[in-house]
Amino acid sequence: MSTKNIAIYDTTLRDGAQAEGVSFSVVAKVQIAKRLDEFGIAYIEGGFAASNPKDMEFFRLIKKENLKTAKIAAFGSTRRANTPPEEDKGLAALLEADTPVCTIFGKGWLLHVTEVLQTTPEENLNMITDSVRFLKEHGKEVIYDAEHFFDGYKDDPEYAMSTLKAAADAGADCLVLCETNGGVLPNEITEITATVVKAFDTPVGIHSHNDGELGVANALAAVEVGALHVQGTINGIGERVGNCNLSSVIPNLMLKMDKVCLSNPDNLKQLRALSQFVYEQANMRPFTKQAFVGDSAFAHKAGMHVDGVRKVPHSFEHINPEAVGSQRRILISELSGASNVFLKAIEMGLELDRKSPEVREVLKELEQMEKGGYEYESADASFQILIKKVLKKHRSFFELEGFSVTVNRQGTVPGCRSEANVKLCVGQESVSANGTGDGPVDALNHALREALVKFYPTIANVVLVDYSVRILDPEEATAAKTRVLIESSDGEKTWGTVGVSENIIEASWEALVDSVEYKLFLEEEKAKK
């Protein structure tokens, strides 16, 4: 490793899988590993070799893939106390995994040696030495994870350093300092890591957790004083509140510290796509306010900020959004100014002069709508329809003649079934359709699409991704005004719509209609090109 190159070690498939609510299938693990390899990650930790059959199946399957960049690592521990390495089942499982890299953790904190392992300090050093040497003798690249190292160093610096020496002398290829409890501050990371780097010729790495919201800061602090290897997970998922977030560490290293940590620096533009892919495979909703890759990372709301971005982008953006595959978003709210509306219109492909009276008309209408409870930050599609209406460029693809919704429950049988009937006028034709669903909105959605699909077949591809309700004036109790936000997708694009009414069904209908009309607008624009 050079002083400029930083080896990124991804442990999403092992440490990330320990996050509450996350369980990757074997197929998902293989797919994530392939994407990490394409992205240019140096090391991919596939799982705990002695932990479960699923991880061993991953090691078997990944060998069939032609990875271009990454080395696959199997994770395990040092041998058990008073057990020869040749007879240790954990070390045997590491060899069975048949990976080029083996990562083993050992204890660097006397508290763990005596109270958790319940062995002697001397035997712990022997366990480290024997395990590293055993794996090296079998031709493995060995990464030694010094678990709880920083806490151990603060408790007994001499002993903590002796554990690293045992690993280094036995041939470890990298000494990784683990901040396992996530409670150490960056200044402590800097001081201790610098001491270790100075003491050893073996490359030093950092593995930090995020319990103090310092996982990324601690990793960068370690690199600043000579660490050449950084461990973490995509999106920071992991044990307890998570691991060091590679989705933040990587762009900080590359864009702000001038480090090389991907096989191809241009791959950084794929960071957001990778982040979204991992969220999808983990069955997690993306964190919208995540740095660099979240939907809100480059979203601007205040009118003055938007005006500044319009004139000089870096006046309110710390990096170019495109550098990490993200994009600028202009939010629309009661804080909006003319620049917000102007840039939002451009973003939506609408032609609008910033100084035209139409901009003021849109702002005036926006103000009135938001006073009525509408909110457009998460409803871009509804805002585009609003602009079109103000500009007299909106056309309805259908007109409502009426709808009805009923909710039925049979006796003591649990669960309700909803039915909806919708009557529309499409062109000169009147059409009716029925729909059933688990709830009234679901039934109404099915009925609407059933009525329209023969006229507009493409709406069959639209699905509701999310549905949320907010009571705007709870003091009114059952007469309170309700805001409904719907997120829809056609598999390629996702959009949000909003509806407001004292009646939740009517608010939902309004958001559903905007959702369908927006899809039809998209198809209309596509046909013009």
Account of the 3D structure:
A hairpin with an 8-residue loop joins strand 11 (399-408) and strand 12. The chain is α/β, with parallel strands linked by helices. The strands form four sheets. An eight-stranded parallel beta barrel has the order 1-2-3-4-5-6-7-8, surrounded by nine helices. The protein has helices spanning 26-39, 53-62, 89-97, 110-116, 121-137, 149-155, 157-169, 186-199, 215-224, 246-256, 271-281, 303-311, 338-347, 357-371, 380-390, 440-452, 504-528, and strands spanning 7-10, 43-48, 71-77, 101-107, 141-147, 174-179, 204-208, 229-232, 299-300, 329-330, 399-408, 417-426, 429-437, 463-471, 482-489, 494-501. The two termini are 51 Å apart. The model has no long low-confidence stretch (mean pLDDT 88). The chain has three domains: 7-281, Aldolase class I (TIM Barrel), CATH 3.20.20.70; 299-371, no CATH class; 399-528, Alpha-isopropylmalate synthase LeuA, regulatory domain (Double Stranded RNA Binding Domain). It has 17 helices and 16 strands.
Helix share of residues? 25-40%
- Average pLDDT rating: 88
Question: How many domain units?
Answer: 3
Alpha carbon gyration radius? 28 Å
Find the CATH superfamily of the largest domain.
Aldolase class I
What does the largest sheet look like? 8 strands, parallel, barrel
Based on the coordinates given, report the CATH architecture of the largest domain.
Alpha-Beta Barrel
